[in-house]
Specification:
A hairpin with a 3-residue loop joins strand 3 and strand 4. The protein contains three helices and six strands, in the order H-E-E-E-E-H-E-E-H. With about 120 residues, it is an alpha+beta fold.
Length: about 120
């Protein structure tokens, strides 16, 4: 339901990366955000692997604990982030980042049953 602006464009790019890395992930709404998790996660209280949200000045990808997914920090160099949130501002060029490798790594860890949550 986003206006057709830069936030929608970035959100759709991130959504496609998530869907490509985890085609078996279910897409649903949780906490008023797009969420991605186990195929039946929308019907349970299970934690989602990813959440996507658009704020006024950035699009955010919530991923649990970044350190568990990228311990050496090499995949997210140059990105604005918190403990479990990666922020993409208007000037961030997603194609110049390694966020796709980060997402793929998160999906792989999750599939192996490793804890990537906060």
């Amino acid at each position: 339901q986003l206006a057709d602006d830069w936030r929608r464009e970035k959100l759709l790019v991130l959504r496609e990366m998530i869907c490509s890395s985890g085609p078996d992930l279910s897409e649903f709404i949780k906490y008023k955000m797009l969420a991605y998790g186990a195929p039946d996660a929308e019907n349970t209280d299970a934690e989602a692997l990813f959440h996507l949200n658009a704020q006024k000045s950035y699009v955010s990808l919530y991923v649990g604990d970044i350190q568990k997914i990228d311990p050496d920090g090499k995949l997210l160099t140059g990105l604005d982030m918190g403990k479990g949130c990666i922020r993409f501002k208007k000037t961030t060029k997603i194609e110049d980042t390694q966020i796709d490798a980060f997402i793929a790594n998160a999906v792989e860890l999750w599939r192996r049953g490793e804890d990537v949550s906060c």
